[in-house]
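Readers outside the structure-tokenisation community will struggle with the description of the input data as it stands. I therefore recommend that a typical entry be quoted early in the introduction. An entry of this sort, consisting of the sequence and the corresponding backbone structure tokens, reads as follows:
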Amino acid sequence: MNIIRIEKAGLKAWPAFEEFDDNGWISRFADGYTKRANSITVLTPGTDSLKSLIQQYEHLYNSKKQPCIFRLLSFNDNTEIERILDARGYTKDDHSLVLSLELKNREFQSLEFDPVTVPEWMKYFCELSGKEIKSHSTHIKIINNIKARHILASLSVENAIISCGLGVLSDGLFGLFDIVTHPQHRNKGYGYKLISGMLQWAFENGASSSYIQVIAENKSAIGLYKRLGYETAYEYHYRIQNYQVPLVIIENHEFKGSL
């Protein structure tokens, strides 16, 4: 599978609110929600004026009160970029794998997924992952901005939702996102069943391949995807600027508002 094609499908599947492509340096902004949507993905590193270019991106992200974050892909030679970022104090974070799977000549389970609204699905996601839904307004906005065909899938047992996931079909590639299973129901085959059903839906709707991005330390998830047939296509990691949001100091100490 063409890895550049996977990259472009992945960016389209998880849309930022603003995105700019400067000769293969793709800068994205989404109110700070997820590094994936608030970083510069370097598709083609180049060799000219890297330090100056990095400084320009630092100014751009810092002007939005965000740290500058670079997403570096393993199929590129990032030696010079890494050297400059090391010198500028950037930390390394979230070493991740991109796994891919050809869907042809494979057997998956066929499941019926009931249509749900984004707020309904987000309620499932937050309950299963132990997160507060009020902190996921930007998450909802990102999903609402997905232009490609997608599915908000969930799996229930005895009328209780125990697993859910988001799948996005773009350019014949099916990306899996936000896969989560309730802690009490993990390692029982439910995640496998959910994803298998999603892959069957994708194949029936024209997908030829699938991909998923997963943190390299998440061995249990990687094991699940490997059992489904996924293989590592490439890797990436983030380099994060040591940036502190400036404090606004109010000189007038007399407060006349209400708390």
Notes: The chain is about 30% helix and 30% strand. The first helix runs from residue 3 to 13. The longest strand covers residues 91-102.
